Amino acid sequence: MSTTSRTAAQTGTTLRVHRVGAEDWESHRTLRLDMLGADPDAFWADPDEARARTAQQWRAEIAGPRLHLQARRGHTVLGGIALLPAGYTPEHPIPPDRAHIVSLWVRPEARGRGISRLLFAALARLSLDLGRPDLRLDVDESNHAAQRLYERLGFAATGERDPRPGRSTAWVEYAIRTEHLLES
Known about the structure:
The protein is an alpha+beta fold. The protein has a single domain, classed as Gcn5-related N-acetyltransferase (GNAT) (Aminopeptidase). Helix content is about 35%, strand content about 35%. It has six helices and eight strands. An eight-stranded mixed sheet has the order 1-2-3-4-5-6-8-7, with helices on both faces. Strand 5, helix 4 and strand 6 form a beta-alpha-beta unit. The two termini are about 25 Å apart.
């Protein structure tokens, strides 16, 4: 199901954002393994665990609780993002008007083409449809490129920090209201 499209002025090709379904498990797996291989420290996931998953486990991941989106040009997946409209676990609930953004990644060869902005706009519309206008995300404090992107889009650091176990860095929380993402 295509949720949005736009023409990329730089290339003249049509990009679309696709809501990932169970039938997309292979493209989802490929994207996740590529992102974890390229930037393993940027995500919560364990690359070894992800590589060992079965097709059934990939389908279960797509089934929820995260809602996955992919930016595509034709059948080529250029990047992805996910929305978590509830806490990571029942022990970590979030307020009913909030959703958490996870797993933003754009293939290095596709960066600089507005794909992140397209993914965030589609995610903002999805979040509004779910009645969750308060969006949050966490980024490693050493990931300055991601922080610059989020700040260009209008995100602001909340001051919340969560030390990363086994590392000398912390996750830094950023927040935005969905309507601001749709304006950018």
